[in-house]
Amino acid sequence: MSQERLAEACSKQRLPVSVSSIKRAEAEKNILYRTLVNLASFFKVSVDYLLNTPPLSLWTYTRSQAHYFQPCIGRDWELEQISLLYTKVIHSNQAATVCITGMFGIGKTSLIHTFLAQTQDIKTKYVYSTSKKGIFELNPLQHLIRLLLGGPVNTNDSFLRDKAKKCAISQLSFFFILSLAGAKLKETEKMALNSLSKKLKNELEKIMIKCLIARCIDNHITVISIDDLQCADDDYIHFIKILSRECQHYPLLLLLGMRDVAQFTHSPQWLEYSHKIKLRPLHPEHSVSLANIFLSRQELCHVKYQDRKKSALDRAQGHPGILEELLLSIQPEVCVPEKLYQMVQKTIYSFTPDLFYTLKLSAFYRKEMNVDNIHIYISKEFITNKLGQLHTLACSGLIKQVANEYCFSHPLIWEVIMNYMPLLEKALFVSCEASK
């Protein structure tokens, strides 16, 4: 049957199919779904029969996904703000930097991935990397530079050199890109870089970053996202500082995620003009919806596990990451999430003895401490700068200052600290309190 006769026969059965659609179908090009349905009805077969590779059902597709990111619920306003800034960046050809901050488990990574997924739907290209060590085989800076070059991260030196040649504008910038990307340099290349003065190296660094930005623009990358910036070392931070400064006149959105600890407890000067989005705990209704999703993923009926859900919701206090770990634990009413425990443990291992003593004393007497009365609780002789100690603890992320009060950033952090105190030490604190 010819194409014209097929179109005419379909029309007689009130199944509109044009000749051009039939030609597209025969050439294995995309056609409208309603056209596909009409053809299937004419030939009295299923739609799947006419497809070479019929799509999976939604249920099968969902079950086949080995990994998915935490759902982003209750962050509509934040997503809208980032989307508006992104639109402004594209239309104005002027870069913008967005800083997403918040404590452990508040949902920063989830928000970033949700936004990137939305941009991917409109065929926007992006780069995503993390400053956290141990996630990739390469160190974080090498991983980021290879992504900006536009090639696969795990590649051989020959392929990396080809990518760097397309990006570099001079021999020295070529050598510099290779060294920061982790490629093996020849002896002559090492000598050329080592002979440079500090001033020339700084200039070369700026040129190299401009080359990488130009490479991103050529590859139609409009979003550069970097997560866990609080874990970055000095070299990585230095690179991001220059990147944020040099990309100002390009259509690039720099999306940074970080915990508000250490140098990010307060916004550093180089991020003075960035757009800040500080994540707060979720509204109770959103927390309930999120808990139901987490339970459904584990094929657990949220009606049957009401007690577990209630305990997890009460203890998580609106923190999605903490909520998920509590829901998946056997005893959410008493356990502490493993990731939170490890974070607190790693932090206190870096404390001096007097700083750790201050933290334990703060945890023992009360969850909130008034600045005016702090000397009553911290009276140990070798602790001289009491408010300085509390400020250091605030920079660690374990406690926070709210108005005239210092309190623990989350009640579960307080529980972890209390578990670190042996009974003998608690008894000593009790006797000291009685003597006062």
Quick rundown:
It is built from 22 helices and eight strands. By secondary structure, the chain is of the alpha/beta class.
Question: Could you list some keywords that capture this structure?
Answer:
436 residues; 10% strand; 8 strands; alpha/beta; 3-stranded antiparallel sheet
Largest sheet: 5 strands, parallel
What order do the SSEs take from the amino end to the carboxyl end, as H and E?
HHHHHHEHEHHHHHEHEEHHHHHEHHEEHH
The helix/strand class is alpha/beta
Question: How much strand?
Answer: 5-15%
What value does the Rg take, in angstroms? 28 Å
How many strand segments? 8
Task: Characterize the quaternary organization of these chains.
Answer: single chain
User: Per the principal axes of the C-alpha atoms, what is the gross shape?
Assistant: flat
Give the N-to-C terminal Cα separation: 102 Å
How would you state the average pLDDT, rounded? 83
Structure description:
With 436 residues, this protein is of the alpha/beta class. It has helices spanning 3-12, 19-26, 33-43, 47-50, 58-64, 76-92, 108-121, 140-149, 157-167, 171-180, 187-194, 198-218, 234-246, 284-297, 306-316, 320-328, 338-348, 353-365, 374-377, 386-396, 411-419, 423-435; strands at 96-102, 125-130, 221-227, 253-259, 275-278, 368-370, 399-402, 405-408. The strands form 2 sheets. Strands 2-3-4-1-5 form a 5-stranded parallel beta sheet, sandwiched between helices. β7 (399-402) and β8 (405-408) form a beta hairpin.
